[in-house]
Amino acid sequence: MKRFIGRLVLGLLLLVLLYQAWLFVHVWWWVDHNPDSSAFMEDRLHVMQAKDSEAELRHQWVPYSRISVNLKRAVIAAEDAKFNDHEGFDWEGMQKAYEKNLKKGKIVAGGSTISQQLAKNLFLSSKRTPWRKLEEAVITVMLEKMMSKRRILEIYLNVIEWGNGIFGAEAAARHYYKSSAAALGVEQAARLAAMVPNPRYYDRHQTARGLARKTGIIAMRMNSAEVP
C-alpha cells in the first residue's frame, strides 16, 4: 500500500513538472512568435458555436507599433497603473481590492495586473478550480521573467476580449469605430479601456451611463500612464 501511494505521489509530481515544462516552452516560444489564439478565445468560440455552428471570432494581430499610444495609455491607466514598476503582482492593489470587496460583501474589484490577466487569457479556462490562482501566479512569473513589459503589453492588447467574439485591439477598433487600432483617439481609447472588465455587456449596452463615466475618468488619468 505504501509503495502504491509513493508511486501515485511520484506520478502526480511528474505530471506537474511536465505541465510546468509545457507552460515554459509556450512562454519561451511567444517571446518572439505571436500566439494565434488563447485558451480564453477557444472557450468563447466553443460557447458561440454551441449556439451557432458557423460562428467565428473576429481577431487580427497587429504589432505594437501599429497600436495607438492612446490605447496603451488608456489600458494601463484603467487596468494596471503600476505596470512598468511591478514584477507581475501589485500587492497594494490586491489589498485595496480585497478591502473593497469585503466592504461591499461581494466581488466588485479585481486587483489583477495586466500580466496576471494575460496569464489567465493565454492558458487558463474559464472554469474555477482550487489551484487556478496558483497556476496563474506561476505563469505570471514566467511571463515577467522571460518577456519585456513591451512584449507583455503587445500580446495583451492583441488577445483580450472586447465584445462578443471580438478579440484584440484591431478587431475592437474596426467593430466600434470603423478605424484601425493605430488611429484611435483619446476618447475612443478611453472608452475601449473602460469596456475591458465587462466587454460583452458593453457591446450590447454601448450607451450605458456607467461606461460614459468610466471613460471620462480614464481619459483624465491617461497623461500620467507610463507606456513601455
Task: Tell me the distance between the termini.
Answer: 56 Å
What profile does the largest beta sheet have?
Answer: 3 strands, mixed
Name of the CATH superfamily of the largest domain = Biosynthetic peptidoglycan transglycosylase-like
H/E series: HHEHHHHHEEHHHH
Structural class: mainly alpha
Unreliable residue runs: none
Give the tally of β-strands: 3
Coarse morphology: globular
Mean pLDDT level: 89
CATH class wording of the largest domain: Mainly Alpha
Q: Could you please say which CATH topology of the largest domain applies here?
A: Penicillin binding protein transpeptidase fold
Q: Strands across the major sheet, in which order? A: 1-3-2
Q: Helical amount among residues, as a percent range? A: 55-70%
Rounded to an integer, what's the Rg over CA atoms? Answer: 19 Å
Tell me the strand percentage band. under 5%
- The appropriate CATH architecture of the largest domain is Orthogonal Bundle
Q: How many structural domains does the protein architecture include?
A: 2
Number of helices: 11
What's the SSE blueprint?
Blueprint: H1 2-30, H2 39-51, E1 58-59, H3 69-79, H4 91-104, H5 114-123, H6 132-146, H7 149-159, E2 161-163, E3 166-167, H8 169-177, H9 186-195, H10 199-204, H11 209-221
Parallel strand pairs: 1-3
Antiparallel strand pairs: 2-3
